[in-house]
Amino acid sequence: MTQRIIEIIADTLGIEPAAIGPDASMDTMTNWDSVAHLNVIMSVEQEFHVRFDAEEIADARSVAGIEAALKRHGK
Amino acid sequence: MNARHYTLADQRAFAALSGDSNPVHVDPVAARRTIFGEPVVHGVHLLLTGLEYGLAGERTGLISLRARFQHSASLDGEVRFECIRDGAARTISVRRGDTSIGKFEAVTGSTRDSVNLPAAAVWAACREREFSGIAAGASGQLPLAMDRDLARRMFPSLSDALPAWQVALILATTRLVGMECPGLHSIFSALELRYATTPGENLEWRVERADDRFSAVRLALSCGDTLGSADTFFRPPPRRQASWEEARRAVSPGEFDGVRALVVGGSRGLGEVAVKLLAAGGATVCATWNQGEDDAARLRDALAAEGFAITITHCDATSGVAPELPWLPTHMLYFATPRIPGGRGQAFSAEAFESLSRCHVSGFAALTESLVARCGGNLRVLYPSTGILDDGSSGFAEYCAAKAAGETVAGDLERRLAGLRIMAPRLPRMSTDQTASLIAVATMDPLAVLPGLLREFAAS
Lengths: 75, 460
Prior knowledge:
The structure holds two protein chains of two kinds.
Chain A lengths: L1 H12 L20 H15 L5 H6 L3 H10 L3
Chain B lengths: L1 E4 L2 H11 L4 H4 L1 H4 L11 H12 L6 E9 L8 E9 L2 E8 L2 E11 L21 H5 L3 E5 L4 H7 L1 H6 L2 H17 L5 E9 L7 E10 L4 E8 L2 E9 L9 H7 L9 E5 L4 H12 L3 E6 L3 H13 L5 E4 L16 E4 L15 H26 L3 E4 L2 E2 L1 H4 L5 H20 L3 E4 L2 E2 L18 H13 L2
Parallel strand pairs in B: 11-12, 11-14, 12-13, 14-15, 15-17, 16-18
Antiparallel strand pairs in B: 1-3, 2-5, 2-7, 3-4, 4-5, 6-8, 7-10, 8-9, 9-10
């Protein structure tokens, strides 16, 4: 799951997946701004067939945060 | 590899061609109040520039087009275009520095039918819509139109490469998003078009999906038999600060009697709230503006309508020159700030630090010294510093460094200049244009912070 999340983030930000580590977050990545974040989350929802609430969207600001949110949805 | 620098003149020419004169692209004063903080290049301007390079020397048509606008591009840097040709496919990557700002994929083929294409003389005005208003299902149509001479001057290769109606359709999509729906507070995120051979005369659009969790709107597009979609976001409008009535309820009449306050940067944001609170409490107030004369005039006129007179005047805080006032101030509040960059994950920018320091350090010092000289001492100064210095939030290194230097300078000024007292509280993150974001960010209401702060300051 981690790798797929990284691939989605890489595709959205236009960078290579290898440039994104499992500890990557909005605080550590130049391109991961608020617009990119919404695109990332929408792609994650589409890929994993889940629907986050607004609080989850705001909190899932890292690879680990997105993974944790998906696990809360049983993924 | 091709490279372009975009200027404001380029932006305005593209606005004339496309009909998308959304202020975020062409009006630096209005754009500074958006989440971008400055004018940004139209995404479709980048797209057509990419196609200009990617289709140079060809005479063809588009079968399909897919564009993603990944990141905003301001006007102060070089934009690079890399085009890869693979049979009928063209992939164009757009970068600014290390940041990918766009990716465009086009498939070419022979669709060269023509259509009568009028050159629009007057474009419709920019609409300001509410998300709730269009989520219920808005729709409409825009006529395709294009000034072919202007198009040829701006995109000569593209004008030869593609049928005019195909270019006009792409132009109509930015007019739709930037001016019509979502309109004034829009972000164009992605465009997809599947061209048919038969051209249409209008771009028909309807809201296909709206998701309030993301403030996202997908528009379904059609033009004749050509179909497509546009993905957009609503961006937050300029932050409306506390109303006069709210400010009046937050202070007691007369509690600031005798205070003559110069509020530097008082036309919007925290400075605007301070002006209202001080005026409501009986202070004599002068609010300065640097770029936002209209904002300052609106504030002055709104207070005048309530029977409270303030003066407004221009002041470029980085100049260090205090404005001429009809009275000598007892208090100066320094709310001036340029755009605060939030460069997450980026290396420290000496350029950004110097820009911030011109306001928060050297400008502040020089302006304070000139005011003290004019007042003969006896000046109280509020220098709002930042709580980020304490909480260690990442991404604001240049701002924090400038504010820390400003605190040091404030201490030095106080020691050197007799009669000067400076308060430099580290304030929490409050709701202003500078803290606006598409995703929820914890901020405090300025009215929960500033009344108490101003009381303490006035009594200092």
